[in-house]
Batch of 2 targets.
Target 1
Amino acid sequence: MTEPDCLRDTRASYDAVAADYAALFHDELASKPLDRAMLAAFAELVKAAGGGPVADVGSGPGRVTAHLDGLGLTAFGVDLSPEMVAVARAAHPGLRFEEGSMLALDLDDGSLGGTPQGYLLVRKPG
């Protein structure tokens, strides 16, 4: 299957700016109390539903993945850009980051406790 131009273009764009993007937004959550509160509420909902791994899809340099890990979730990041994944792995060596597309995630149905983005939630059976 041929990859759509939009994925190649998006990947190339984020690869080109990965280090600068990470530097610019490294402490972005510090100035966003509502975002932190929503992520905390999300973490509580995942824990109340029995936990399970959480996928930060479009994780970029991994700041949200790391925040979710700090909230006690088993979080991992997935990003289209190999450079973003490399930056995330360097910044957060204890966390898992994978290259992948949100259009074709290599995840089984029901395998996640959730994703914080809201556009993707794979529920556990039951």
Target 2
Amino acid sequence: MQLVVGRIGRPHGVRGDVTVEVRTDDPELRFAPGISIATDPAERGPLVVEGRRWHKGMLLVTFEGVADRDAAEELRGTMLVIDSAEVAPLDDPDEFHDHQLVGLTVETVAGEQVGEVEDVLHHGQDLLVVRRKGQDDALIPFVKTLVPVVDVEAGRLVVDPPEGLL
């Protein structure tokens, strides 16, 4: 299974730097100089990181062979991916990688089916995006009080939502 660790954005400057929308909790490891990163679409890569730096909260990456703004522009929108087998397991039993949560069935503490985890958003607070049949997606803060049970092996998680959340 491939996991997206970043998405190439617009070029920065004229020397081939690109902005990268980071989708990993370890950008220092994933975008270290010398690292080769697979791409989606696959024919745009793999790309080898030549250098990286932070600029006003945005990660700027230089890839080998991308020497000017035109070459950088051609990479815009490319997803940077790794194999899920490359992700080390977490030591804390209450922490999960996004790919472990996506696809889990969601039910309430009363046993009512809610839907399926479609995505995990990281905007200050982690939010589970839950796809529901015939309704809008639900956004559930991923905190122990609202999500008391996560059973990856059984493919489910249990939510205890306050009134009005769903």
